[in-house]
């Protein structure tokens, strides 16, 4: 919902020094959960491991019912789920040309849902350098970087979880993270094949998808 005030506020809309008055407003956004990678990252960074464990157990109990709370590998299962679901989410973004705009760890949901997409946008035509965020001068979060930024954020999640994992679990978690790229590529291919109406498996499918994207870029 959007509630508009009668009071004026000063805004620098494009962060370019051109300040002007406009009506103030409050935006209400809803989500199943606002826990994000940064919620765990900040606790691990400050060494609050008891609170980190309590929060993580709460998140698993509330939002990951398939993971048993008495399972000694529950944090590993949690990480595996977040990795695969994040790959799925970004694949869906890319399949419709959606650019999140600010893909840092504090804007990546642990439930792998789309949150905090303030300066978002959809591509009018295919352009891997498309950036909807006018303050992102370095194009850090351009649409072509979203998949790799997702992997970077997941590596930060693993770093936050490591104090709660034993040596074997750390090794397995690293292997899970390495599988992110393959999962993303597989899901993206599946989505693009559905768009093109390609049935079954053909070794030339991926070539055709890449070719058509290149043609779109040239157009």
Automatic annotation (TrEMBL):
It holds the Pfam family SelO. Its cofactor is Mg(2+). Belongs to the SELO family. GO terms for molecular function: ATP binding; metal ion binding; nucleotidyltransferase activity. It comes from Acrocephalus arundinaceus. The keyword S-adenosyl-L-methionine does not apply. This is Selenoprotein O. PANTHER family: SELENOPROTEIN O. Keywords: ATP-binding, Magnesium, Metal-binding, Nucleotide-binding, Nucleotidyltransferase, Transferase.
């Amino acid at each position: 919902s959007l509630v508009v005030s009668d009071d004026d506020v000063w805004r620098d809309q494009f962060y370019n020094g051109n300040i002007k008055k406009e009506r103030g407003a409050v935006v209400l956004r809803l989500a199943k959960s606002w826990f994000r990678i940064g919620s765990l990252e900040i606790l691990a960074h400050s060494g609050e491991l008891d609170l980190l464990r309590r929060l993580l157990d709460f998140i698993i109990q509330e939002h990951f019912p398939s993971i048993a709370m008495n399972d000694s590998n529950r944090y590993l299962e949690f990480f595996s789920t977040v990795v695969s679901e994040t790959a799925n989410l970004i694949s869906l973004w890319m399949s419709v040309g959606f650019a999140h705009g600010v893909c840092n760890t504090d804007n990546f949901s642990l439930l792998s849902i789309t949150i905090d997409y303030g300066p978002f946008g959809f591509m009018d035509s295919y352009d891997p350098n498309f950036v909807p965020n006018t303050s992102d001068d370095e194009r850090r979060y351009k649409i072509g970087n979203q998949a790799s930024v997702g992997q970077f954020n997941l590596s930060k999640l693993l770093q936050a979880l490591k104090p709660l994992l034993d040596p074997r679990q750390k090794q397995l978690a690293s292997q899970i993270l390495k599988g992110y790229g393959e999962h993303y590529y597989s899901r993206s291919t599946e989505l693009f094949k559905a768009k093109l109406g390609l049935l079954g498996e053909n070794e030339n499918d991926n070539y055709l998808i890449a070719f058509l994207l290149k043609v779109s870029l040239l157009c």
